[in-house]
Amino acid sequence: MRSTLEPVEPTKVRINVVVEPDELRPAIDRTTRRLSREVRVPGFRKGKVPRQVIEARIGRDALLAEAIEQEAVPEFYAKAIEEHGVQPLSRAKVEPPSYEDGKPLEFSATVEVKPEIELPSYRGIEVERPTLEVTDEHVDAQLERLRDRVAQLEVIGRPLTGGDFAQIDLRATHHTTEIPELTRSDFLYEVGSGTVVPKLDEELEGKRKGDILRFNATLPDEAGEQLAGREVTFQVLVKEAKTKVLPKLDDDFAQEASEFDTLDELKADLRRRLEDAAAGQLASELETRVLQAYLDQVEVPLPESLVHDELHYRANRFAQQLGMMGANLDQYLEAIGQTSDDVEADLRAQSERAVKAQLVLEAVADAERFEVSDQEVDAEIRRQAQRVGRDPEEVRGALAEGRAGVISGDILRSKALALMVEHAVQRDPAPDDESEPKE
Fold first, then answer.
1. Of 148, 145, 143, 378, the residue nearest 264 (C-alpha)
2. What is the pTM of this model?
């Protein structure tokens, strides 16, 4: 077998293969044996049909075409890509083979591959240093959330107002038919929350224990396809009026709401947690800035098969997220004021960036000759298993059934990005350009 390799596009190569007649004979013999087991010929048992009979039955040209298509081309294509070190990203497009009985077989296969990337220096990438300061205001906001969680509800004699809680019996009917989804007893409802219908909040404002309300309201889209748009009659009995009483910020509160004895200890712990979270956000933001700054410097031809796979994955995930929110695509598009073409273009742009980042980081890993040890793979499997609450061997088995090298690839790309971040040059941000931490 002789083969040559020629680039036809930045992400495609053509492999030209020539197979001598003697090398082709084993493929013909294998095809003959297979057909002798498949073809029924009166007077012969399966697998015992002579080659001459097979040829007479289906014709020699048909036999040779079957041997070339099913046996020879796959076999010698596999040998050729191994010989040239080609790692295909897609199925090969094989041009119709050229063959005459007794002469060499010639065929060409075009396949998508990773592009060659000219890497500018990935050490010394300049980015603006991300900043995130934890202030007393952030600590106080955390304290207020904690106070709200341990607050007590106390009965009040005054009229209800926004932020108060009404314990109610709620009955909803459409004409004379009760709507079970909206009918509740001893329902603790926060006035002003708008979780049933906005008019319920309006009706409860200023009411007291013992008041009985009756009103009509049209159900919003959030009620679901079956109920949205219906005009419903609500009957409400106010059984109790309550208000939320926040505890005082003192040592007693700290002991009730946490494992600490004093308010100062609780504040110190909240600050430490916020600072730890801020450090994680800063590290993530720095990685994002370094990678984006470098991607802006690099031109990368993108293999369409990789973009297609990434786009398919992101579109499926987007559909799942909409389903979890109980929304469909039309409702989402109406909410954000976009078209389906806008969403598709955005998903494609995200996919193209993800593929570009993957190829660039893999090129950096190759340039640095990074490797992944079995111990690193095992540690990553254990980490993923712990994150999803599964047994490590179960995760390992699931990976083996799919892309076995996915973890190694993730580790290599992480190493490449870590190297780029380690050697990045961070400049101070412009004045008054500091970010607010996420609480």
1. 143
2. 0.75
**Do the beta carbons of residue 189 and residue 242 sit within 8 Å?**
no
CA atoms of 244 and 114, how far apart (whole Å):
62
Measured between alpha carbons, how far apart are the two ends of the chain, in Å? 65
Q: Express each pLDDT in 390-419 by its tens digit.
A: 888 887 777 765 455 788 899 999 999 999
Pairing mode, if any, of strands 105-112 and 212-218?
A: unpaired
* Distance, CA of 363 to CA of 102 (rounded, Å): 45
Q: What is the three-class DSSP state of 223?
A: helix
Q: Which pair of structure tokens corresponds to residue 363?
A: 């090129």
- Read off the pLDDT of residues 128-183 as tens digits, 9 standing for 90 and up: 999 999 999 999 999 999 999 999 999 999 999 999 999 999 999 988 899 998 99
189: Cα within 13 Å, side-chain hemisphere: 32
Contacts of 337 (CB under 8 A, 6+ apart): none
Helix 21-38 vs helix 60-67: angle between axes, to the nearest 10 degrees? 110
Report which of 357, 349, 355 is spatially closest to residue 302, judged by C-alpha positions. 355
Nearest to 210 by CA among 241, 234, 235, 232: 241
1 vs 23, 26, 29, CA distance in Å?
A: 7, 13, 18
* ∠ CA 168-174-175, rounded to 5°: 120
Higher-confidence residue: 359 or 224? 359
